[in-house]
Amino acid sequence: MNHLSQNDIDQFNEEGYFVLEGLFDDDHNQRIKNDVDQLMEDRQNSAGKPIISYRELGLLTSEPSIVDRVSDLMAGEKFVHHHIHARWQLPGERGAP
Q1: First to last CA, the chain
Q2: Would the CA dihedral through 64, 41, 12, 91 be positive or negative?
Q3: If you compute the radius of gyration of the chain from its CA atoms, what whole number of angstroms results?
Q4: CA-CA distances (angstroms) from residue 27 to 7, 32, 75?
Q5: Structure confidence by residue, pLDDT tens digits, 57-66
Q6: d(CA 61, CA 65)
Q7: What is the longest distance spanned by two Cα atoms in the chain?
Q8: Whether 31 contacts 56, CB under 8 Å
Q9: How far is 28 from 80, CA to CA, in rounded Å?
Q10: How far apart, in whole angstroms, are the C-alpha atoms of residue 81 and residue 33?
Q11: Residue 6 and residue 63: Cα distance in Å, rounded?
Q12: Of the candidates 62, 31, 34, 90, which has an alpha carbon nearest to the alpha carbon of residue 42?
């Protein structure tokens, strides 16, 4: 536990998201962004592909650095990823419920 600061947890509880600056290198971030772009394009075209089918997004569901932080948000409770929610957040936009 303690992969997140109290400020991170508070922001998540208030806004529904927080930014993990520097968690992944620039190349990895770009690959994730490319998957999100493709996901959003597919959704506009009514392609109902599950998020897990996008390589980089799918890998996030078992990435230890993500799983550890989700565990912190859940106060250390055990959990299983069913799927992940992915979409661009505009500055100041509240997270999806």
Answers
A1: 24
A2: positive
A3: 14
A4: 27, 9, 31
A5: 888 878 888 8
A6: 10
A7: 41
A8: yes
A9: 24
A10: 20
A11: 22
A12: 34
Residue 69's SS3 state is helix
Global confidence as pTM: 0.66
Q: Spell out the long-range contacts of 87-92 with Cβ–Cβ below 8 A and sequence spacing 24 or more.
A: 87/36, 87/39, 87/40, 88/36, 88/40, 89/17
Q: What is the pLDDT of residues 6-33, one digit of tens each?
A: 998 898 888 888 888 888 999 999 999 9
31, two tokens: 């690959």
What does the block give as tokens for 51? 């998020």
Size of the chain in residues: 97
Looking up tokens 């493709």 gives 38
Q: Which residue has the tokens 């230890």?
A: 64
